[in-house]
Amino acid sequence: MDERYVSLKELGSGNFGVAWLVRDKKTGELFAVKYIERGAKIDEKVQREIFNHRSLRHPNIVRFKEVMLTPIHLGIVMEYAAGGELFDEMCTAGRFSEDEARYFFQQLIYGVSYCHSMEVCHRDLKLENTLLDGNTSPRLKICDFGYSKSGILHSKPNSTVGTPGYIAPEVLSPKEYDGKIADVWSCGVALYVMLIGAYPFEDPSDPINIRKTIGRILAVQYSIPDYVHLSSDCRLLLSQIFVSNPLKRITIQEIKEHPWFLQNLPEELIEVEKNNYENLNSYEPTQSIEEIARIVQEAQIPAEGSKHGRQSMEGT
């Protein structure tokens, strides 16, 4: 790893491990590297994340580059989105105007639509899993495919995964569900949060009570505060997304044809899809599936006698 990249700074950490900003020594290009400790943490979830992410090449999805091994970690190298999380941008603003929210929602929907066309459902869509590039007209980038499932490689989803406030009602049942339709609900939550600056199904008087949140999700109990003025078309779209019966919920394609969604729709979103994503060939990962599988398999072997933690990243 240290032959190819220079570590610059830590970007963040979580249950997975730690993420660092690195620079390619040859090209000078910046990348983000997600480091996961070798051994037991390289489980089926991590493998799914890597293989599903590798298959996706779209302007609104963080680009996968390669996986690499260090003595202690598996490193997932990907595009660096300099603008940070959309969630932080929204928190700074308090909430977005309808036009601003639509601008990001349009990109989210086109990115998710592409995932679905590739038979990948994300299953943890939320503002924290959408990043922004550093441009003045920021481009949204979907990231973190840890809970994703492929309709080609994996069985139908039947487990309750995701973030409580974003979870669709059917995900809370023990039965199989359609991950794509559940993704639509999560997109609706993201839109609501951008517009209102709060979560639709949290009890305002008891927001940390997950049991209450789940009850309100199952009852589809949400409201638009009086101080927020939304157009009738926007309210209608939210009501068509927040439908408990997944078979009656609006589809991604229907959202893309919705009058509210079509306002000020960026031409580049339409062009990428119209060209059947042909201009995305330059995103081709440098590693074959076989090579990645070999590296992941090797990463499942724990590192012996290694010092763990943040310090181990220094000089990587």
Give a written overview of the molecule.
This protein is an alpha+beta fold and 316 residues long. It has a domain at 84-274: Transferase(Phosphotransferase) domain 1 (Transferase(Phosphotransferase), domain 1, Orthogonal Bundle). 33% of the residues lie in helices and 16% in strands. The protein has helices at 44-54, 86-93, 98-117, 179-196, 210-218, 232-241, 252-256, 259-262, 267-274, 289-299; strands at residues 5-14, 17-24, 30-37, 64-69, 73-79, 84-85, 120-121, 130-132, 140-142, 149-150. A 5-stranded antiparallel β-sheet has the order 1-2-3-5-4, covered by helices on one side. Belongs to the protein kinase superfamily.
Features of this protein?
disordered C terminus; Transferase(Phosphotransferase), domain 1; 316 residues; nucleotide-binding; 10 strands
List the helices and strands and how they pair.
Layout: E1 5-14, E2 17-24, E3 30-37, H1 44-54, E4 64-69, E5 73-79, E6 84-85, H2 86-93, H3 98-117, E7 120-121, E8 130-132, E9 140-142, E10 149-150, H4 179-196, H5 210-218, H6 232-241, H7 252-256, H8 259-262, H9 267-274, H10 289-299
Helix pairs in contact: 3-4
CATH superfamily (homologous) name of the domain at 84-274? Transferase(Phosphotransferase) domain 1
**Physical arrangement of strands within the biggest beta sheet:** 1-2-3-5-4
Q: How many helix segments?
A: 10
Question: What CATH architecture of the domain at 84-274 do you see?
Answer: Orthogonal Bundle
In whole angstroms, the N-to-C terminal distance is 6 Å
**Secondary structure: helix percent:** 25-40%
Question: What is the CATH top level name of the domain at 84-274?
Answer: Mainly Alpha
Q: In total, how many beta strands?
A: 10
Query: What structural class do you assign from the helix and strand content?
Result: alpha+beta
The major pleated sheet works out as:
5 strands, antiparallel
- Return residue spans where pLDDT drops below 50 for at least 5 consecutive residues: 153-158, 307-316
Instruction: Please give the radius of gyration in angstroms.
Output: 20 Å
Globular, elongated, flat, extended or rod-shaped: what is the shape?
globular
CATH topology of the domain at 84-274: Transferase(Phosphotransferase), domain 1
Mean pLDDT: 89
Task: Encode the helix/strand succession as letters.
Answer: EEEHEEEHHEEEEHHHHHHH
Kindly estimate the percentage of residues that lie in beta strands according to DSSP.
15-25%
